[in-house]
């Protein structure tokens, strides 16, 4: 049997470092894209707000992901299920934000495909192990 608490904690620890790298790189590439390819955002009238929308999604993703990681670490270390459940609930908007960065930006660079795909893989693994952790928390103690 897999110790889901340990695996979940390891994934959270890895993601806390990867999220810092991901946030820095995504912010840097968005700033670079807005400076170098800023004209593409102004091609049509509906694309004028696209740059602001990209920044808004990025900032919202940073806030949600930071809260998700904080709640997950807090719940995993104290072995409480409520913070972990909130962390699992926050996984949905976080995955949505990464999917937006992966698919619906005006310009998506190849390196962003790699960063976002790796972030999605980590989030899906965390979701699976967090779900297993919650199930084991609701099960009664085993005296085998």
TrEMBL record:
One of the Pfam families matching this protein, by short name:
Transmemb_17
Q: Which UniProt keywords apply?
A: Membrane, Transmembrane, Transmembrane helix
Q: Where are the transmembrane segments?
A: 12-32, 53-71, 83-102, 114-138
Q: What is its main location?
A: membrane
Specify the protein's topology with respect to the membrane. Answer: Multi-pass membrane protein
Alphabetical GO CC annotations of the entry are: ciliary transition zone; membrane
Q: Which InterPro entries match?
A: Uncharacterised_TM-17
Q: Which GO terms describe its biological process?
A: non-motile cilium assembly
Task: Give a yes or no for keyword Membrane in this entry.
Answer: yes
Q: Where in the cell is it found?
A: Membrane
Q: What is the name attached to this protein's record? A: Jg4857 protein
Q: What is the lineage of its organism?
A: Eukaryota, Metazoa, Ecdysozoa, Arthropoda, Hexapoda
Q: Which gene encodes it?
A: jg4857
């Amino acid at each position: 049997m897999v110790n889901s608490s340990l695996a979940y904690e390891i994934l959270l620890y890895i993601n806390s470092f990867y999220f810092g790298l991901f946030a820095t790189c995504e912010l840097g590439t968005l700033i670079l894209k807005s400076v170098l390819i800023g004209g593409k955002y102004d091609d049509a009238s509906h694309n004028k707000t696209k740059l602001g929308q990209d920044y808004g999604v990025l900032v919202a993703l940073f806030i949600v992901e930071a809260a998700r990681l904080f709640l997950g670490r807090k719940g995993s270390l104290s072995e409480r299920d409520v913070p972990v459940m909130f962390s699992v609930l926050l996984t949905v908007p976080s995955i949505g934000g990464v999917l937006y960065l992966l698919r619906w930006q005006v310009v998506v660079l190849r390196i962003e495909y790699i960063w976002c795909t790796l972030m999605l893989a980590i989030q899906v693994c965390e979701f699976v192990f967090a779900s297993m952790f919650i199930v084991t928390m609701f099960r009664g103690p085993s005296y085998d």
